[in-house]
Amino acid sequence: MTSLPLISVDPDARGRKPAMPPRHLADLDLPGRQALVTELGEPAFRAKQVSNHYFGRLVREPERMTDLPAATRERLAGTLLPTLLTPVRELACDDGATRKALWRLHDGSLVESVLMGYPDRVTVCISSQAGCGMACPFCATGQAGLTRNLSTAEIVDQAVYLAGVAASGAVAGSPPRLSHVVFMGMGEPLANYARVVAAIRRLVAPAPEGLGLSQRHITVSTVGLVPAIRRLASEDLSVTLALSLHAPDDELRDELVPVNQRWKVSEVLDAAWDYAATTGRRVSIEYAMIKDVNDQPWRADLLGRLLAGKLAHVNLIPLNPTPGSRWDASPKPVEREFVRRLRDAGVSTTVRDTRGREIDGACGQLAAAEDTDSDSRAATA
After folding, report:
1. Distance CA 381, CA 373 (A)
2. Predicted model pTM
3. Average pLDDT over every residue of 94-119
């Protein structure tokens, strides 16, 4: 049996941990920001002013912070709002309703975020790690391996940046305010537990402390780190848990989701049901439909038996194949039969909207393409 440790941070080839980014106001609660400002010789209330610009007005440019003394704007913004994310590419499709951003971090790592506009809401999908250590073979990020955990502020800054895009009116036909955040980008959120929970608290705290989102509009995805699921249930948060199951039987899930070699399907589902009982929140069961791998009728029936009567909803995901992969999406008739069998078992089931295929919409694809392009440029230089 393969040993799969809970991932924190991978050391580099010399055994050193990667350097974390500079401290940002989103890494700190309001008292922490006030203490930092007073260290600069400024009155503590300046921290609240800068925080209001960042979280309340979605502004980070010092010249727009006109309520701050001109002589101190640059120094305050430079200390509290260092640049964390440098845009590499921003691609749009679906008539501008889907926008994918590729960021370069201070150490050269690449991460991705996606903004999705709908008539009634704006959702952003954010990353919690650069890369991922869970090694799911059908996932582009999983195959790239883990570089490092993101800081709290690097996580939050993705949402704040894309909230600013929404506020600018760039997403036609959608509200101008970000309303939903899903931790379904690069990385396993619960393997970066402390920073992800801190990021959630920033996202839901009202301005100037945070972005002021509803806890019920935050979704945290996991492949099934059982101790972390149980810990999350004790945080007094009403966020939705999304369990990336992808197979109802241990034999196949051991292959598709290698962490299943440590925590089997029954253990993972027990933790999910305990989370639902503690929080009152319905668990989302994520299931990527992979042709001739996990889409057989008998697996739909088994999944239905496991979920029947539980506080759960199945979100079937048409696989977005990565270039050169042996994995492909299930045909639509197979997908429809899978849905029918789950619903016949009394299990609420929907199929995820397929967005962003023409802009490398699947997690990790844009970063992988950028790495390939960079290697090609270096080889021809």
Report:
1. 12
2. 0.91
3. 95
What are the beta bridge partners of residue 43? Answer: none
What is the span of the domain harbouring residue 187?
86-380
Task: Look at residues 105, 133, 124 and name the one whose alpha carbon lies nearest to residue 184.
Answer: 124
> DSSP assignment, residue 354?
-
Residue 2 half-sphere exposure, CB side, CA atoms within 13 Å? Answer: 12
| Angstrom distance (rounded) from CA 21 to CA 105 | 8
Residue 63 tokens read as 């010249």
What is the model's pLDDT at position 112? 97
Answer whether residue 33 shows pLDDT above 50.
yes
Measured CA angle at 115 (ends 112, 116), to 5 deg: 135
Same domain? For 97 and 58 the reply is no
Residue 14 lies in a domain: no
Tens-place pLDDT, residues 114-143: 999 999 999 999 999 999 999 999 988 888
Q: Answer whether residue 214 is part of any domain.
A: yes
From 56, 80, 104, the end of a domain falls on 80
- Token code pair at residue 379: 């080889």
Domain contains 217: yes
Active-site residue set: 112, 363
Classify 373 in phi/psi space as left (phi over 0), alpha (psi -120 to 50) or beta.
Answer: alpha
Evaluate whether residue 12 is within a structural domain: no
Q: Which two tokens stand for residue 15?
A: 């055994």
Count structural domains, the chain: 2
In this structure, the answer to whether residues 124 and 244 fall within a common structural domain is yes
Is residue 57 domain-shared with residue 169, that is, in the same domain?
no
